């Protein structure tokens, strides 16, 4: 029985790790992950820049709103669910403006032969709640990409200076916190060095 207790004590000590080890590892992960997240954000920013450069804006009417729940299991084995919000938007393909013309305030053309189409887009809950069925809004899309449509309000927000600065400030704060944690962990792990 004593051997069992000794082995259990040794296992508990091993699980604790060496002093500063967790802090050191967490700091290094933060310093690596934060810039990686910024790179992914910049790739999304390039897609948004393409929408501004090549996008066509149209007036759209909200035809329907829907919320779809998705069930999943988290890492700890607990059952969770998340909601996906989507809008069905009807717009006229023949009444589109280039994004730059729309920004300049040009009016939408009223074509003699409208070509109405309905597209479903997923969006965040705040944009979903702000629009009601039958309400008009504006959307932007690249004609060659049928899946890339988004609300112009969302595009404007996600390309605003304040939104981009929050990402850079958050990344800087995460890298700085990672650096501090790494130094503190290093000092605890190697007190003489």
Outline of the structure:
The protein is α+β, with helices and mostly antiparallel strands and 193 residues long. It has helices at residues 2-16, 21-54, 99-103, 125-130, 152-158, 161-189, and strands at residues 56-73, 79-92, 97-98, 116-123, 136-141, 150-151.
**SSE string, helix = H, strand = E?**
HHEEEHEHEEHH
Shape: elongated
**Low-confidence residue ranges:** none
In terms of DSSP E residues, the strand content is 25-35%
Alpha-carbon distance between the termini?
A: 41 Å
Walk me through this protein's architecture:
- By secondary structure, the chain is α+β, with helices and mostly antiparallel strands.
- It is built from six helices and six strands.
- It has helices at 2-16, 21-54, 99-103, 125-130, 152-158, 161-189; strands at residues 56-73, 79-92, 97-98, 116-123, 136-141, 150-151.
- Strands 1, 2, 3, 4, 5 and 6 form a six-stranded antiparallel β-sheet that branches.
- α2 (21-54) runs antiparallel to α6 (161-189).
- The chain is elongated.
- It starts with a helix and ends with a helix.
- The mean pLDDT is 85.
């Amino acid at each position: 029985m004593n051997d069992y207790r000794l082995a259990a004590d040794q296992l508990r000590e091993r699980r604790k790790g060496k002093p500063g080890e967790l802090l050191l590892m967490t700091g290094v992960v933060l310093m690596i992950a934060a810039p990686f997240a910024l790179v992914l954000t910049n790739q999304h920013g390039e897609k948004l820049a393409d929408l501004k450069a090549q996008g066509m804006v149209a007036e759209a009417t909200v035809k329907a709103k829907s919320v779809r729940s998705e069930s999943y299991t988290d890492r700890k084995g607990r059952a969770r669910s998340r909601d996906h919000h989507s809008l069905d938007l009807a717009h006229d393909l023949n009444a589109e403006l280039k994004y730059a013309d729309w920004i300049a305030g040009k009016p939408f053309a009223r074509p003699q032969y409208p070509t109405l189409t309905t597209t479903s887009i997923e969006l965040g809950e705040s944009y979903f709640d702000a629009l009601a069925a039958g309400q008009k809004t504006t959307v932007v899309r690249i004609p060659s990409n049928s899946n890339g449509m988004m609300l112009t309000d969302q595009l404007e927000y996600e390309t605003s200076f304040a939104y981009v600065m929050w990402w850079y400030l958050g990344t800087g704060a995460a890298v700085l916190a990672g650096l501090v944690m790494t130094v503190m962990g290093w000092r605890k792990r190697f007190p003489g060095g």
